[in-house]
């Protein structure tokens, strides 16, 4: 009965969210407008805390105005694309706001990218300029002769707190800024809710990184609903945000939410479990934007005085494992854990509106769970060729109907966007977004995440495309064939990468050389943790697809494998042959991947 009345109390927050209508496409609703409104109301209040810096809303707005004016004078126009390649810090936020003020599109690049993936992201975006932080200048310099931005005036270098020498191929941006520019730009009045605010690169389900299109209205809708029914914060609160701002979680659920209500944000370059609670106390962070991996790291820390009486009361994010949920909530005395679900390129956001445990909650969009054959990797259909809905509580493929209040913006790549759409699902002519995820119906329109399908798995808070990893490993000189897949590892979130490799005749696996190669061509989160050196040919389906299901089941269990398995242990730069003793330690959760 107590739980019933608690949920009744949640209704006053839930109903407005379920009735929420996205901003009119032609309205002046944008991140820049929202920021300027908050600056007008809360100009003298802290906007960003970072290391030894504190920026007020007014100070950040002046800097963003000056930067935006510089971009306009440099020829950047409404709708043009500008690369942003920088770690979390105030100038990242200011750069993004400046671009939004003039209707330019921020192309947000993952800071761990180097080499070919970095080249692809820059060139495929057709950007005219690149804003690069001093801390990421070296990876950019390494590919300068292969990207389509080469003019010194188009490469804008932003100094960091650390000592970095300005490269001769770039322009020092900060030297061209006036930090006392109070006048908002007239160009902002032309920015509408339908305009694209930024591209966020996602591996999606296959292939190289693809640019998901995020219009202003999507940022605004997320910010309004997350703060209204999620955090329940206002301008007196401070949000702890250590997630990369090139990701939708850190950007939409974190920064945009704080801006919407005029709250402060404490941002960090990277997450640190050891300093987390001290930071929370220092900046009195009442809200926390998370991914499940961070919660697991915190829960695995030894108890400390700093965690006691901590200020965090609400947190919003994704990927919190059920077995960590209760422990984390009880140990750290968190009132509200609002798990959400939604892809950057997707058309709906699920929220745990009732603050129930271990659920991603519900959405106002029309959804269906489709019968799916995991072993054959295909959607099951009836005699008429239409999809079938799950009729019990078994997992089904989540599909979300595309409509006026569930708009699918997709990727910049139209062909890739079309691959995410299911057509003629239940009736001729209908269209649904294919989430690529298995969900289980929990009743009352709530669903629970079960697993990720296809050629993508999640590790360290990042989506890893098996196709991309396979393409890189296949170029290693001694490998004749490779299959990459995700495997479950005790006491970790998501799935760790595992590669089954077939070596060319006469070749032997060279662990250190192999590590050196893959670490030079792949981001750190995409590196396989396990390598299975296969001896026999792999079985394929009738359509010549590899049957990864058996590989995933076998994983790294050397007790049932005839093949050698190698593992890359934490803080090492090589692979070690897996034996029974090491396997026992991994299965016991004693190895902290």
Question: What does the model show?
Answer:
- The protein has 593 residues and is an alpha/beta fold.
- The chain has three domains: 2-351, Rossmann fold (3-Layer(aba) Sandwich), CATH 3.40.50; 367-452, Luciferase, Domain 3 (Luciferase, domain 3, Roll); 456-587, ANL, C-terminal domain (GMP Synthetase, Chain A, domain 3), CATH 3.30.300.
- It contains 16 helices and 29 strands.
- The longest helix is centred in the N-terminal third of the chain and has 17 residues, at 2-18.
- The mean pLDDT is 92.
Which helices and strands appear, and what pairs or packs with what?
Elements: H1 2-18, H2 31-42, E1 46-50, E2 53-56, H3 57-73, E3 81-85, H4 90-101, E4 105-108, H5 115-125, E5 129-133, H6 137-141, E6 155-158, E7 171-172, E8 196-202, E9 210-215, H7 216-231, E10 238-241, H8 248-261, E11 264-267, H9 276-283, E12 287-291, H10 292-300, E13 314-318, H11 322-332, E14 336-341, E15 350-351, E16 367-370, E17 372-373, E18 378-379, E19 396-401, H12 414-419, E20 421-423, E21 431-443, E22 446-452, E23 456-459, E24 462-465, H13 466-473, E25 479-487, E26 496-503, H14 511-521, E27 530-533, H15 548-554, E28 564-567, E29 576-577, H16 580-587
Parallel strand pairs: 1-11, 3-4, 3-5, 4-8, 5-6, 6-7, 10-11, 10-12, 12-13, 13-14, 26-27
Antiparallel strand pairs: 1-2, 8-9, 14-15, 16-19, 17-18, 19-21, 20-21, 21-22, 23-24, 25-26, 27-28, 28-29
Helix pairs in contact: 2-4, 2-8, 3-4, 7-8, 10-11
């Amino acid at each position: 009965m107590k739980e019933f009345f608690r949920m009744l109390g949640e209704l006053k927050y839930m109903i407005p969210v379920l009735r929420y209508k996205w901003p009119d496409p032609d309205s002046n609703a944008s991140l820049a407008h929202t920021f300027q409104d908050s600056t007008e109301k809360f100009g003298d209040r802290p906007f960003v805390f970072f290391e030894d810096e504190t920026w007020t809303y007014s100070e950040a707005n002046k800097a963003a105005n000056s930067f935006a004016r510089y971009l306009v004078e440099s020829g950047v126009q409404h709708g043009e694309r500008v690369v942003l390649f920088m770690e979390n810090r105030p100038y990242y936020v200011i750069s993004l706001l400046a671009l939004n003020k003039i209707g330019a599109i921020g192309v947000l690049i993952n800071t761990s990218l180097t080499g070919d993936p970095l080249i692809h992201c820059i060139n495929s975006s057709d950007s005219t300029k690149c804003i690069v932080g001093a801390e990421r200048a070296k990876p950019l310099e390494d590919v300068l002769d292969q990207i389509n931005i080469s003019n010194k005036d188009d490469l804008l270098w932003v100094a960091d707190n650390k000592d970095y020498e300005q490269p001769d191929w770039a322009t020092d941006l900060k030297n061209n800024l006036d930090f006392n520019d109070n006048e908002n730009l007239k160009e902002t009045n032309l920015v509408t809710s339908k305009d694209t605010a930024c591209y966020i690169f996602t591996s999606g389900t296959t292939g190289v990184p693809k640019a998901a299109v995020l219009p202003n209205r999507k940022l605004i809708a997320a910010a309004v609903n997350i703060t209204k029914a999620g955090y329940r914060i206002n301008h007196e609160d401070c949000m702890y945000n250590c997630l990369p701002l090139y990701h939708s979680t850190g950007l939409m659920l974190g920064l945009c939410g704080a801006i919407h209500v005029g709250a402060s944000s404490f941002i960090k370059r990277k997450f640190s479990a050891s300093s987390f609670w001290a930071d929370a106390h220092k900046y009195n962070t009442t809200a926390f934007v998370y991914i499940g991996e961070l919660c697991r790291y915190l829960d695995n820390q030894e108890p400390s005085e700093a965690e006691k009486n901590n200020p965090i009361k609400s947190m919003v994010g994704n990927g919190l494992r059920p077995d960590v949920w209760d422990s984390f909530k009880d140990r750290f005395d968190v009132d509200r854990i609002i798990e959400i679900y939604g892809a950057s390129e997707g058309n709906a956001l699920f929220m745990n509106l009732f603050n129930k445990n271990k659920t991603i909650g519900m959405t106002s969009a029309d959804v269906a769970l489709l019968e799916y054959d995991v072993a054959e990797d295909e959607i099951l259909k009836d005699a008429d060729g239409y999809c079938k809905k799950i009729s019990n509580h078994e997992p089904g493929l989540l599909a979300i109907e595309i409509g006026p209040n569930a708009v699918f913006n997709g990727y910049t790549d139209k062909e890739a966007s079309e691959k995410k759409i299911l057509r003629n699902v239940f009736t001729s002519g209908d269209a649904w977004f294919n989430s690529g995820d298995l969900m289980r119906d929990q009743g009352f329109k709530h669903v629970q995440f079960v697993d990720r399908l296809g050629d993508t798995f999640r590790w360290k808070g990042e989506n890893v495309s098996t196709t991309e990893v396979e393409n890189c490993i296949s170029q290693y000189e001694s490998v004749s064939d490779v299959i990459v897949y995700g495997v479950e590892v005790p006491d970790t979130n998501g799935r760790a990468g595992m590669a089954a490799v077939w070596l060319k005749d006469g070749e032997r696996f060279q662990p250190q050389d192999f590590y050196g190669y893959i670490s030079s061509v792949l981001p750190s989160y995409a590196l396989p943790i396990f390598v299975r050196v296969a001896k026999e040919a792999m079985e394929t389906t009738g359509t010549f697809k590899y049957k990864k299901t058996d590989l995933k089941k076998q994983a790294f269990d050397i007790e049932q494998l005839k093949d050698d398995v190698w593992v890359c242990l934490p803080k090492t730069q090589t692979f070690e042959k897996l034996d029974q003793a090491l396997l026992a330690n991994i299965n016991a959760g004693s190895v902290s991947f």
